From TrEMBL:
Source organism (scientific name): Smittium simulii
Pathway as given in its UniProt record: Amino-acid biosynthesis
InterPro entries for this protein: ACT-like_dom_sf, D-iso_2-hydroxyacid_DH_PdxB, D-isomer_2_OHA_DH_cat_dom, D-isomer_DH_CS, D-isomer_DH_CS1, D-isomer_DH_NAD-bd, NAD(P)-bd_dom_sf
Protein name, UniProt field: Phosphoglycerate dehydrogenase
Alphabetical keyword list: NAD, Oxidoreductase
One biological process term in Gene Ontology: L-serine biosynthetic process
GO molecular function: (S)-2-hydroxyglutarate dehydrogenase activity; NAD binding; phosphoglycerate dehydrogenase activity
Length: 438
């Protein structure tokens, strides 16, 4: 179907539905993909680019992140945007995104997106929360071994011409206790690998989880900190996890224990960690994420941890492997394409999850209504009163918080009915966004 590009009268109905203007005697086809513009930033994997290109969209790729002002200019005319962790899609940016219907975060987190405002505007957000689990787990294992052998300091000294061969305070990891905070996809991967290397694994999680191998859970964070030789953090950023490891928690750790954070930069109090390292209370640390990270690559990084003994600092590379980026690219790009072409919201971060199977190719005159509306009583009654006079072959609806999502497939004999249905639905005061597909 062709795309009208017209905007609807109010903010709540602000965008076109990619409406049909072609006769309905044609066989069922997806929306006219050639009119959809996609902006991909931060060097998203080529596999992802290829999947999106194969959908027939207009694509612009930029290898770096953009400043707020650059984003405001670029985002005005795009229907979809793909980002990684550096690009910040704030309210100030999204206010200018008048055609945007979907954001693809080609990474684990979505902290870089104002999810509440995106939801308010009817913009779906997708990410890939599990695709880089193995990559992060492997990095942590490498860091555990490196810290236990003081590889960072040894490499630095030897590279400077200093020969300092010593076994003091260098250990095997076999038999040591690894405490994992957050026993999710990354934590469980790490648990299995660590056990295979002879480590004893304990973990703490706020949710009940089945243990893998011979690992066991402990009943409190403090218990884990007091027992562990190595502590590795794998939690999301939430109000409960911000600064969850402060001076009080670090003081509970065993003297000489080592802390690893490859989760979120706000989880650990960096000055407190630096003090513990410089005082000798902790034997080492590996940190891959920081409360404030540079906007772009270059000599911009500052941290109290620079120069601390037996400390490994890396530039947020936990998931930065070709394998992980390829898997992330496939998952997120397919989610974006399916949302644009079919209306499928499965695995959306901020939307109810709805899906209708793609309709078979027939000569039946069929369209799909996709509607996002405020989750208040009476809206479904209004929608069904609009479409009820036609043959509704199937429909689905769900809600999440303040937003509800509705999909319906309708067969029509009247070629002008599409415009009537569309105009009636976007005329509802509760309407956020409506699209007509096929």
């Amino acid at each position: 179907m062709s795309t009208s590009g017209q905007q609807t009268p109010t903010i709540k109905s602000r965008r076109s539905s990619f409406n049909s203007r072609e006769p309905l005697t044609r066989r069922l086809q997806p929306v006219n993909t050639g009119s959809i513009k996609v902006l991909l930033l931060e060097g998203i994997s080529q596999k992802a680019v290829s999947i999106i290109e194969s959908a027939g969209y207009q694509i612009e790729t930029i290898a770096r992140s953009l400043s707020e002002q650059e984003l405001i200019e670029k985002i005005k005319d795009v229907h979809a945007i793909g980002i990684r962790s550096k690009t910040k899609l704030t309210k100030a940016v999204l206010e200018h995104a008048e055609k945007l219907i979907v954001i693809g975060c080609f990474c684990i987190g979505t902290n870089q997106v104002d999810l509440d405002f995106a939801t308010e505007k009817g913009i779906a957000v997708f990410n890939s929360p599990f695709s880089n689990s193995r990559s992060v787990a492997e990095l942590v294992i490498a860091e555990i071994i490196a810290l236990s052998r003081k590889l960072g300091d040894n490499i630095k000294e030897t590279s400077q011409g200093i020969w300092n061969k010593a076994a003091k305070n260098c250990h095997e990891i076999r038999g040591k206790v690894l405490g994992i905070i957050g026993y999710g996809h990354i934590g469980t991967q790490l648990s299995v690998i660590a056990e295979s290397l002879g480590m004893r694994v304990i973990w703490y999680d706020v949710l009940p989880v089945m243990p893998l191998g011979t690992s066991r859970s402990v009943d409190s964070l403090n218990s884990l900190l007091e027992i562990s030789d190595f502590v590795s953090i794998h939690v999301p950023e939430t109000p409960d996890t911000i600064n969850m490891i402060k001076e009080a928690q670090i003081s509970r750790m065993k003297k000489g224990a080592m802390l690893i954070n490859a989760s979120r930069g706000t989880v650990v109090d960096i000055p407190a960690l630096a003090n513990a390292l410089n005082s000798g209370h902790l034997g080492g640390a590996a940190v891959d994420v920081f409360p404030v990270e540079p906007f772009k690559n270059g000599k911009f990084f500052e941290s109290e941890l620079i120069g601390c003994p037996n400390t490994i600092l890396t530039p947020h590379i936990g998931g930065s492997t070709e394998e992980a980026q390829s898997m992330i690219g496939v998952e997120v790009s397919n989610a974006v394409v399916n949302f644009i072409n079919l209306g499928t919201s499965s695995n959306a971060v901020n939307f109810p999850e709805c899906d209708l199977k793609a309709l078979p190719i027939t000569d039946i005159k069929t369209l799909r209504i996709v509607n996002i509306h405020q989750n208040v009583p009476g809206v479904l009654l209004q929608i069904n009163s609009i479409i009820g006079k036609y043959n509704v072959t199937k429909q689905v609806s769900d809600s999440r918080g303040d937003v509800a999502y509705f999909m319906a497939d309708i067969t029509l004999d009247d070629s002008e009915a599409i415009d009537r249905i569309y105009k009636d639905i976007i005329g509802m005061s509760e309407n956020i966004m409506t699209r007509v597909l096929f």
